């Protein structure tokens, strides 16, 4: 029986057919390990677990890669506030995440690459974009992606950004559609980064959030792969920027099928750490809930 899924890219229900070896090569945006994952996060991972099982039930194999974001604005702020090394700070939440996956009986992915283990791949990808004239170095040593140089920008979000492109830059990892602009591929070291930083052709710094997933997914799944999933809040800017980075570098289609799940809501509002309306798995277990 043919398996069909809703593709966020085309906004249509389409057959899910592996490109090769009857294996769905499948990338999942994993956690940013700056705090305990909450049940809204696990709503996405449960969705992806069910999807994985249904793919296998339909006679296909799966190669799933789920990243761990262990360097970004949030993890650095958290480590600095706690007064500990970034690796020690993120290890606590990595270990907790894997323990929670096990409690929820979520099938493990085949690979869990961490961003800090793939800095050379990220630097190479940034350099390829500079070489193609699509990225540029700013005065402070940061490197930005020029969205005007990629004609397909906005195709996942289904928004024409042409009228909004003013040449502005956005250094933050997360932003909304109203603030679209050239986004950071490499962030120059700042005093607030403390000991966190890597040497690069553009000076000491660290990768932007979006380049991390493009580099790691292509390393393990190839320049074009079958399926990419995540929460709906990842669709823009994160997934839109992943497409731009990868396709501008390789000249190939990045991902065939994109799937996104909706938010878990509390009293009509999205559950999130920033809103303070979240519950972790530990919270629920302490209240007497069980699986």
Q: How would you describe the overall organization of this protein?
A:
It is globular, with a radius of gyration of 19 Å. The chain has a single domain, classed as HUPs (Rossmann fold, 3-Layer(aba) Sandwich). Strands 5, 6, 7, 8 and 9 form a 5-stranded mixed β-sheet that branches. Strands 4-3-10-11 form a 4-stranded parallel β-sheet, sandwiched between helices. A two-stranded antiparallel sheet has the order 1-2. It is α/β, with parallel strands linked by helices and 291 residues long. β3, α1 and β4 form a beta-alpha-beta unit. The mean pLDDT is 93. The longest helix has 19 residues. The chain has 7 helices and 13 strands. It starts with a strand and ends in a 5-residue tail after the last helix.
Task: Summarize the model shown.
This protein is an alpha/beta fold. The protein is built from 7 helices and 13 strands.
Overall average residue pLDDT: 93
- The count of β-strands is 13
Q: How much helix, percentage-wise, in residues?
A: 25-40%
The tally of domains stands at 1
| Biggest pleated sheet | 5 strands, mixed
Using the CA coordinates, give the radius of gyration.
Answer: 19 Å
Q: Uncertain spans, ≥5 residues at pLDDT below 50?
A: none
Please state the structural category: alpha/beta
CATH superfamily: HUPs
CATH topology: Rossmann fold
User: What is the second-level CATH architecture?
Assistant: 3-Layer(aba) Sandwich
């Amino acid at each position: 029986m043919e398996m069909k899924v809703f593709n966020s890219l085309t906004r249509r229900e389409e057959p899910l057919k592996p490109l090769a070896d009857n294996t769905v090569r499948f990338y999942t945006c994993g956690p940013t390990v700056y705090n305990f994952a909450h049940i809204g996060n696990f709503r996405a991972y449960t969705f992806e677990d069910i999807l994985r099982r249904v793919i296998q039930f339909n006679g296909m194999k799966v190669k799933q890669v789920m990243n761990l974001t262990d360097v970004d604005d949030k993890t650095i702020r958290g480590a600095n506030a706690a007064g500990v090394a970034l690796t020690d700070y993120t290890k606590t939440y990595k270990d907790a995440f894997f323990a929670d996956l096990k409690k929820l009986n979520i099938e493990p992915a085949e690979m869990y690459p961490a961003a800090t283990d793939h800095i050379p791949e990220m630097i190479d990808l940034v350099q390829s974009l500079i070489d193609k004239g699509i990225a540029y170095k700013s005065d402070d040593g940061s490197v930005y992606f020029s969205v005007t140089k990629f004609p397909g920008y906005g195709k996942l979000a289904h928004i024409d950004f042409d009228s909004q492109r003013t040449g502005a830059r956005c250094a933050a990892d997360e932003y909304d559609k109203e603030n679209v602009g050239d986004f950071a591929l490499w962030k120059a070291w700042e005093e607030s980064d403390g000991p966190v930083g890597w040497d690069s052709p553009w000076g000491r710094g660290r990768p932007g959030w979006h380049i991390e997933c493009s580099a790691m997914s292509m390393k393990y799944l190839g320049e074009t792969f079958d399926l990419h999933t995540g929460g709906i809040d990842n669709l823009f800017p994160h997934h839109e920027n992943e497409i731009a980075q990868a396709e501008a570098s390789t000249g190939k289609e990045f991902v065939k099928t994109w799937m996104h799940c909706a938010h878990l809501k509390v009293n009509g509002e999205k559950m999130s750490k920033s809103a303070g309306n979240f519950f972790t798995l530990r919270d629920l277990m302490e209240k007497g809930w069980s699986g």
